[in-house]
Amino acid sequence: MSMVDLETRARELIRTLGARAAFAQWMAANDARIRGSDLDNGRALAAERTAIYTAAVGLWAEREQAAFGYDRPFAVVAIGGTGRGEMAPCSDNDFAFLFDDAIEGNTFLKHLQDQVVQSDRFEREHGFACQAFPFNLEDVPTLGGKQLNAFLDLRPVYDPHGLGAIFRERIRATCDTFEHFLHVRGFWKDRWEKAADECERLDSFDIKNDGLRLFLAGVWTLAGKRFQHSAEIYATLDDPRDLAAYDFLMRVRAFVHLRQRGRHRPLGGGYHPEDVLHFEDFLAFGDLLGPEAGDRERYEFANEVRARLLSARRRVARFAKGVIQRELKQGRPVAPGHPIVLGLGGLSHTTAHLCQTPHEKSRAALGLLLAAQRYGMPIDPTELQTTFRNAGDWLEPVPELAALFYERRGSLAQSFAFLSQIDGAEERLFPGYARFEASLDGRVMNEKKLLRSALEREKLAALERFIEEGRQLAASTISTSADRPLTIGELMRLEATQLDAEHLAAVRLALKTKRLPLMPEDEALRADETRPLHERFSSGMSGIPLSQYYARYHTLCDFTPETLRIVEFLQLHRREFKERSESGLNTDDKVRELVALCGDENLLRTLLVFTGADRAEWESDKRDPARWFNTRELYEKAMKRFRPGLDPRAALGAAGYSPQERDIIADFGDAFFGGSYRLYIGRFGSHLLRLAARPDDTPPKVVVLRDGTSVIVGVAARDYPGLAATITGSLWTQGIALQQAHLFSATNHHLALDFFHVAPDARGLPADLARTVEQAITARRHIAVEDEAHLPPTPGDKSLTERSAGLYRLHCETANGPDGLLYALTYKVFRHLRGNIYGLEARTVKGRTFVNVHHNLPTDLSLEQARAIVRERF
Description:
Layout: H1 3-17, H2 19-34, H3 42-68, E1 74-78, H4 80-84, E2 95-99, H5 107-116, H6 121-126, E3 132-136, H7 145-152, E4 155-158, H8 163-174, H9 177-196, E5 205-206, H10 208-223, H11 230-234, H12 240-260, E6 276-277, H13 279-283, H14 295-330, E7 332-333, E8 340-343, E9 346-349, H15 358-375, H16 391-394, H17 399-406, H18 412-419, H19 425-429, H20 433-438, H21 442-447, H22 452-475, H23 488-496, H24 501-512, H25 522-527, H26 533-536, H27 546-549, H28 551-555, H29 561-572, H30 576-582, H31 588-598, H32 601-614, H33 625-642, H34 651-654, H35 659-666, H36 669-673, H37 681-693, E10 701-707, E11 710-718, H38 723-733, E12 738-746, E13 751-758, H39 769-779, E14 797-804, E15 807-814, H40 821-833, E16 837-845, E17 848-855, H41 863-873
Parallel strand pairs: 2-3
Antiparallel strand pairs: 1-2, 1-4, 5-6, 7-8, 8-9, 10-11, 11-13, 12-13, 12-16, 14-15, 15-17, 16-17
């Protein structure tokens, strides 16, 4: 009986008994047939079971549209297994609501979803839940993967306006049939190919995923060419035994579903534990004869079923493997009539041998590379001797080169890894690349492992990881509590996902060509004979000035002027975050300068992502956590200028602080609340209030904080002169080196909230660190007059400068290591300059140590007097 006839019978039964009673009666009759001994009715059972669902949903949709008075084109279609008429007892039903109308704000859609999604009204009336999602014609180009594959078997169940046919034609006109083929082939490679070789397993057999879908992989491969319904392909199969094997698998599946129904929890996503046959299920086929059959009869019958099942598994595996491999042997074009095809060895270009000029050859070669990147497919190795043969002699920039950089799919790093096999090819695309890839720089000399060309591709790959991991991070809806801000790594990954096509292409091109244009500083660097040769000649490899280098990429390759403008900006300011993060505290002036430099938030974001990818391995946050902490804070402060948002102090009320308590916390000022440390107020806020209310009996609080790769010692205490020296002295005596410190004061309430960044050290921190520092603060250790005689030495050149009105920086540069230098200098600033310290930095570069102490001076001490003290006492 055809599906149309079955649905007619089902509708008559629904009209007679009502939907729920009809469903129950229909299912009971179908279950009884499944328990019978007929083995050749698998398709009939599945179609019969499907018909009650499609008939019920169709009648309901017709009734609801008439009752609501919705007069726009509307349809309900079955898709996937429901659309094929191949449901089993534990199958999900799959439907879609189709509209030729806007979905957003559609009141009729809301009326339908109120019954099937927002309540169980439909289920109570019909005896089953209707699983349906809405689509309109504008959604068609976005269909892909599993969802597109489900629409392959679209079948209308209520369609008064022929909308189902319109959808199918729209899908045919817009879908990427090659992408669909790769989707099916991907499942084949990941799972089904292995399943095809395991037909004799008895311990575990997923009859849906490793049996039925094995056959469907071949069917979908054929159907996807013209986006046909699977039933159309069934009708064209030259050997009826292939379809009969598939039907037999459906018969066994129905029996196993009934046998296991109610034993498992649903998994969702189309996966059902009932689909998995275990050894005991293979022994149970004799049950189909019923209790009246004898043991021998049941035994022989079970053997027959197992034999037919083995035969069916082999046949569907052979069918799918043959269809897919035949497609590859013949060559599957990436689009109808396209010269690029996917074969057994990978992608190849079938007409490249006809190209005569370098321009034609380049378009063919880079077009093949673009297809490989877009679809994530390898290029057939034989193409190295055909399409790419001697490309180092003729390859030139063409529009396909720009398309490689603008293409968001696939891996640009892998594309250039392929091109790197051809000597001279990249030099023809990027002048100076041949000198660059064989040259030396600080990283190559330090790591002694890879050439710069390989390191450059690692940076492109890092950018690709940023985007992929950023998408995963965004999808996980990660929340950051008050004491767990985003790490710099998380921030860069999330921001990478926000880059539009132009800004992303610019980052890629800047990473690819970073050392090739001649930069303004290169001539001076080459003339500096105090530097080693590999530093003097590591940049400007093309000899072409930056202002001229990228001009041809617009005229020859179709890079947009905006993309190339961004590339030049990134080249000119590639050290911007590094230099600003190493130059001290993130003051308002520094933030204002960065905002003015970038001009808009998109360029600021692009500069951060470029910096992160460029330094993903070399000088990463693992090597220099303090610098990257400063980078994150600087970026966030700058971004707030473009997106001001609420005053962070407003959150204090929401956190439960009273007005009086908010006044105390807010006394730490703009410098604290405008930066990253404000996020730690949740760890210290209550203790600070106790320090303010009961200063005599409240001890200081010391907490070791971990912010990404940064290890920070946070201190909340009563403020007093010399507190910074007490803390740095305590840390020094425990063997703990520091990279920087930021110190904040609530001057009206005599409170201090200080953060000391520990230098990377594999030894770890002492277990009693917090207690030792707390005791030192309480006892005011390390700042007595007599302690000066035991200070660490302070060798090197020292200078004192006024950075802005009333704010000073003591700078020390020495060839000695930084051991104890921060403590000694903070002690001397406290003891001899009577300065209030608000920031510390210590950095070692190429064997020299640089230390900065940021502080103010008392009003009765002039800068010249202070400088004289530094010369005499420091």
